[in-house]
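User: quick one, fold this
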Amino acid sequence: MKKKIIISGMSCPACEGKVRSALEKIESVSHVDVSAKDGYAVVETGCGNEVLVEVLGEAGYDVITIEPEALSTPGKGMDRVCRN
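Assistant:
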């Protein structure tokens, strides 16, 4: 599942690298996209939100919220979410 993580404290390319590195260490993470400018990361993972919060906290960042990427991008992947 793709998740969009809103992160406080990222302000530069070095922050992006630190967040990316922390998230890529999670075994179930298969894709990471980070934007310090916009203050978020998008991950493809099967892990729970508490794992993401803990890992980013250990890296020195606060998670504001985590939302399913399918909901933040209308229409994207909805066939998998809403199939009867």
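User: anything notable?
Assistant: Helices lie at 13-24, 49-58, 69-72, 78-82.
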